[in-house]
Each structure stands twice: as structure tokens, then as C-alpha cells.
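Q: Structure for this?
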Amino acid sequence: MSIKLELFSAPGCSSCGRAAELLRELTEEVGGGRIEWRKINVLEELDYAVNLGVLSTPAIAIDGELVFTGLPPLHKLLSELDRRISAKGETSSI
Amino acid sequence: MHYRIGDITRIIGLSADTLRYYEKIDLLPPVNRTTSGIRLYNESDLSRLRFIRRAKSMSFTLTEIARLLEMREDPQHARDEVRELTKRKLEEVESHMEELGTLRNELTLLINLCRGSNAGCPIIEDLDIHPEQEKHKGS
């Protein structure tokens, strides 16, 4: 079962591009289809973003839960993913 | 401390006519007067008027407000009907607060998007454009 990452971004957001690049690399690195991610333009899905509690961009939700506001340091993102992969009973290779 | 009607209109933001009307329909108990007939409101009147203003801002009717004031005067001995109404109104306020919370978050997000933008405020500009576009559509 894969982990669903959602990156909330917006036009004109200066660090959203970097966040997208980070998630792209991470998905490839973890591999095995264990991470699925999508980029969400908050202006197109405003209700969804607000319901999750997104108050600024970039923001990252994992499995439908807002986990990071702002661009997190790589080690924090990795440890959160590691924790969730382990919780799903899979062996982490992160 | 005592307040004249002009003080109350400044503090509460209700007109003098409205204040006199509330007294006439017993939302306010008879206000003390000077020998020359000038109304002198006290702290208790002020507190009651603040309550009325808040309840009005929630679109409660004057009849409902009168019942709620009964509850406010003596909650322990309020009639069942008044207690029920108070409970219903509390639910309305809570639901309103939830809506307001969502609106606050949405507006916060929009403001933050503007702050984070390198090129002005695309969102606000976008919102500004829409009414104009709507007008053109209608013409």
C-alpha cells in the first residue's frame, strides 16, 4: 500500500518548485511505487486545502493529513516517511 | 457610572431611536431618568445592550432576544421553553463559529499567498478582475 503525498503550491510561490523537485527525487529514490505524490494548486482546490488546514504554501500532506507547512528539511521528511512505511508493516529502505 | 443616551449610541453603536424602542418593547427595563426626564443608563443597561447587539449580529429576532434575556436574568429558574431556545441558539452560534473559522483560514491562506509571491499579488488581482468580467458577461 503506497503513501500518498500531496504538495500544496500556488502560482508565484518561490519555494514550491524546490519542494516539487524534492518530492520527485524522493519518490524515485524510495521506488517500488511506495510513494505516490501529486502537486495541488491551492487556487484550484481551495476548499480541500482549507479543510486540511493549509494556511500557506508550500505545504505537504501525507495520507490526507497536513504534516509540513513550509519546505521541511530533507531528514525530517525522510524520517516521517520512514515512520509511516514502518507503520504500514513494510520494510523501509529509506 | 451613568451614561446619557448620546454616550450609549457612541459606545454601543445603536441609534437613540432604537434605544428608546428597546425600552418601549421591554427589552430594557425602564431606564432611570433625571428630574428633567433625561435618561441615565447604568452598567447593567450597557451590558444588556451589548448582549442585544451581539444577538442581533447573529440575526436573532427581537422576540428570541427577549427570551434569552429572561435566561440571562435568572438562568436557574428559566422556563423549559427558554432553556430549549437557549440551547438551540448556542448550537447556531457554534455552527456560525465553525463557518467563521473556515472563512478566517481561507482569507489567511489568500493573504499568505500574496506575501509569498514575488510578483505582486496575483490572487487579489485575480479577484479584482472577476467582477469586471461578470459585468461584461451580463452586458
